[in-house]
Write a structure and sequence with these properties.
Blueprint lengths: L1 H36 L6 H36 L4 H26 L6 H4 L3 H9 L1
Helix pairs in contact: 2-3
Length: 132
């Protein structure tokens, strides 16, 4: 009996391998089709760079307020003018933080800074100085 079972399995083995091969081929086709429909990967480097810039801007704003508040608190402790100088320096720190954020954001966009034309010498200025 054991020999008869082995013979029947050997006879069906050819049909089984053919059906398995067909199933694998159809599965391979379906996998290739599914990979084609998959969305393209997101640019993670660009996203990471943008998050880094956002963190940089937020830290600059918070640091300006914190440093201004600390300087005001320290001066209040020194001169005994509680809370007047702390409030003044908190406002000054917030203003400097906002200015830093605007300056950094403009630099990221590649725009010239406000007053840039006043800080740099133009060719006209150089030739005018040479003639004097």
């Amino acid at each position: 009996m054991a020999g008869a079972e082995n013979q029947s399995e050997a006879g069906n083995g050819g049909q089984d391998s053919d059906s398995i091969r067909r199933r694998l081929d159809t599965l391979d086709g379906r996998l290739t089709e599914a990979k084609g429909r998959r969305p393209q990967p997101v640019d993670t480097e660009g996203r990471g760079r943008a998050m880094g810039q956002a963190f940089k801007l937020s830290i600059e704003l918070v640091a300006g307020v914190a440093i201004g508040g600390f300087i005001g608190w320290a001066l209040d402790q020194l001169f005994g003018t509680t809370p007047f100088l702390m409030l003044v320096f908190l406002v000054l720190g917030a203003a400097s933080g906002i200015m830093n954020v605007v300056r950094t954001a403009k630099a990221m966009q590649g725009e010239p800074m406000p007053g840039h034309h006043l800080r740099t010498k133009t060719e006209r200025d150089v030739t005018a100085n040479d003639e004097d």
